[in-house]
Amino acid sequence: MGNGTGIGRVRGLGSAKHGASHWWRQRLTAGGNLLLVTWFVFSLFRLPLVDPATGALSHKVIVEWLSSPYVAVALLLMTINVFAHLKMGLQVFIEDYTHDQSRIAALVVLTLYSVAAGALAVFSILKIAFGGVPA
């Protein structure tokens, strides 16, 4: 095993063996997003309009809709899936295009943002679903 040529330096090292699982997880979350966001859009379009002229939904209609266990669980799944997909996609972008010491800081900020925003969204959905918001 020489170290004089490029192939000599990498021969025998093999692959990192983690890229394929990350790629599959990203594709699975993309498929889940496709199904769950499609459900979300169609579900919103099926809600009754309060004022047909403006197309505005009332707060009461949204709270009643979200109080359904099926809607709350589907919305929770969608939220978790969207934030997981966001983190994975931006992580790949940061790893591919950031080549200095700011990469670690960017990955830490991305992880903190994903967890904090996802937790806030999950808390909000659960609060409405369990009746914590007055109509």
From TrEMBL:
<dbReference type="Pfam" id="PF01127">
    <property type="entry name" value="Sdh_cyt"/>
</dbReference>
<dbReference type="InterPro" id="IPR000701">
    <property type="entry name" value="SuccDH_FuR_B_TM-su"/>
</dbReference>
<keyword id="KW-0408">Iron</keyword>
<keyword id="KW-0813">Transport</keyword>
<dbReference type="InterPro" id="IPR034804">
    <property type="entry name" value="SQR/QFR_C/D"/>
</dbReference>
<keyword id="KW-0349">Heme</keyword>
<keyword id="KW-0816">Tricarboxylic acid cycle</keyword>
<keyword id="KW-0249">Electron transport</keyword>
<comment type="pathway">
    <text>Carbohydrate metabolism; tricarboxylic acid cycle.</text>
</comment>
<comment type="subunit">
    <text>Part of an enzyme complex containing four subunits: a flavoprotein, an iron-sulfur protein, plus two membrane-anchoring proteins, SdhC and SdhD.</text>
</comment>
<keyword id="KW-0479">Metal-binding</keyword>
<keyword id="KW-1133">Transmembrane helix</keyword>
<dbReference type="InterPro" id="IPR014312">
    <property type="entry name" value="Succ_DH_anchor"/>
</dbReference>
<protein>
    <recommendedName>
        <fullName>Succinate dehydrogenase hydrophobic membrane anchor subunit</fullName>
    </recommendedName>
</protein>
<keyword id="KW-0812">Transmembrane</keyword>
<feature type="transmembrane region" description="Helical">
    <location>
        <begin position="104"/>
        <end position="130"/>
    </location>
</feature>
<feature type="transmembrane region" description="Helical">
    <location>
        <begin position="65"/>
        <end position="84"/>
    </location>
</feature>
<feature type="transmembrane region" description="Helical">
    <location>
        <begin position="28"/>
        <end position="45"/>
    </location>
</feature>
<keyword id="KW-0472">Membrane</keyword>
<comment type="function">
    <text>Membrane-anchoring subunit of succinate dehydrogenase (SDH).</text>
</comment>
